[in-house]
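hi! just following up on the protien thing from before. the input was this:
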Amino acid sequence: MKTLEPGDAIRLNDQPAEVIKTYAVGDLEDLEAYATSERERIETFMTEYERKAEAGTDMDIAIRGQRERLSKLEDRIEQRREELQRKAQGISLAPEVENLCLSLSI
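and the predicted 3d structure came back as:
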């Protein structure tokens, strides 16, 4: 399969189109690596807070805060994943050329 480059002419739904921009899979891989790292960090805090709670310390607010952070992280990651997928499909239709000539006699 040919690697597409910006400016390449293609056909999309039997219509001429042009590749505007391409994105590497690495963008998505970087996102997944970031998400995994952040999840682990938040879960580490939660585990520590739960351990302290078992020892008798009031950690409900801290645990709830970390759960909220994890939920917000998942939302941001999903939005970014969708954005990357939309950008990867960024193709515009080539303009149609009209043959028109106007002659004026002076």
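The chain has a mean pLDDT of 81.
The radius of gyration is 26 Å.
cheers
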